[in-house]
Structures are given as structure tokens and as C-alpha cells.
Amino acid sequence: xxxxxxxxxxxxxxxxxxxxxxxxxxxxxxxxxxxxxxxxxxxxxxxxxxxxxxxxxxxxxxxxxxxxxxxxxxxxxxxxxxxxxxxxxxxxxxxxxxxxxxxxxxxxxxxxxxxxxxxxxxxxxxxxxxxxxxxxxxxxxxxxxxxxxxxxxxxxxxxxxxxxxxxxxxxxxxxxxxxxxxxxxxxxxxxxxxxxxxxxxxxxxxxxxxxxxxxxxxxxxxxxxxxxxxxxxxxxxxxxxxxxxxxxxxxxxx
Length: 254
Known about the structure:
Layout: H1 4-21, H2 25-28, H3 32-60, H4 73-87, E1 89-90, E2 96-97, H5 99-110, H6 115-125, H7 130-136, H8 141-156, H9 159-169, H10 176-188, H11 190-206, H12 209-223, H13 227-253
Antiparallel strand pairs: 1-2
Helix pairs in contact: 1-13, 3-4, 3-5, 3-8, 3-9, 3-13, 4-12, 5-11, 6-7, 7-8, 8-13, 9-12, 9-13, 10-11
């Protein structure tokens, strides 16, 4: 039986979601050079997604000592399963790797520059607060806004808002047009795009219907029948999608 709160949330985000799916960025990626430029900014969304996911793992499972059971076992399973897939999946040769590291390998294969994202990671590893590292990064303001929102949610939002942004605001929106373009680029230069194509296909496979249903269940459990929580969840999801449009705009401007 469908949850009326979920259906209402989906209805409320439909307009901004459709705008994102129809973004002109996809029609601009017509060759290897376009894919390189796309990846050099999109990689930031691949990276910050992990922090949003880990913030959910911290809030919904026991990650402190001594261990005690936390929350609902089904929700714990969902988060731990997604973390397992994102943090330690396999590459095309069966070697364990995170999706972020796989994306970096794909960029390196296609000739995209990883200088800016690697400089950001280096600053964070050196102890620079993430918000400061983002502000100092050589990336467009719309990309910074996107990242700062993610970390504001990850650090400060209640769990039900984090779950909603994760489920509705950060789902990978890969229209069929993009897949057709990717197939064409791969046909022209398979030795340059094989890892990226594998990454996209693996992402669709790992984050397909199974995880989507579990994520919907997670949001439903956390929001319950509290209309105010659903309103907050909806508002945050709309903002997340709007900021993703801003991220796409920044890539389009390049």
C-alpha cells in the first residue's frame, strides 16, 4: 500500500525534478572533451554524497563504544548495505574500490583533470575544516553552494531530513539521453571511456530498485505520521534538487 505522505512529497518535488532531468547540460556532452569537462565538476557531487551517507550511518547505527543497538534493524541494514556498496565495491577487474576512487580512475583514464578535487581532499586530510576547504577551492560559486548545503545537512539536520535529501534530493538522475550519448562516446573511444561507462552502469545496478525501496521505507519510518516532519523533508528535498540544478548550470557555463 502506498504511503500518502511519500506520494505527496513526490508530487511536490516533481516540477524541480523534471527541470533537472530536462537540463540542457546533457545535450552539451557530445564528445570525449565534453565528458572530461563534465566529470571535473561532477566529481564533487560523487565525493560529498559519501559524507551524507556516512552521516546517516552515524545517526542510524551504533558507531561508538560500547556498542548498543540503535534504531530499527531494517534501517540499519539499509544504511550498512549502501555504505558497503559505495565504500568497497569492485572495479571492472574485480578489485575492491570505493565509487569515488573508481570515478577518479575513470577521470584519469579519459584525461580529465583531478587536480582541484585532489587539492580539496589534501586540505581536509591536513586538518582544514571542510567548509573552509570548500570556500578556498577553485570551483564556481554554484558548486560551493551545492557542497555547503550537503555538509550543512550532514552536520546539522535531523535524521529524517538527512534521509529525505539522501532519498529524493540526491538520487542519481541519469536520463536515457545521457546513456545514449555515453554509448556513442564509448564507441568512438572505448580505451578512454571504459571505466566511466562501467562506473555509470555499476551505479545504476547497485543503486537500482532495491536500494530505492529501502530508502523510501527509511524516510517513512523516520517521518512517521508527523506532518511537520514531512513538510521539512519536502522543503529540504526541493532545495537539494534546486542546488543540483545550480551544479548542472555551473558545468553548462564551462
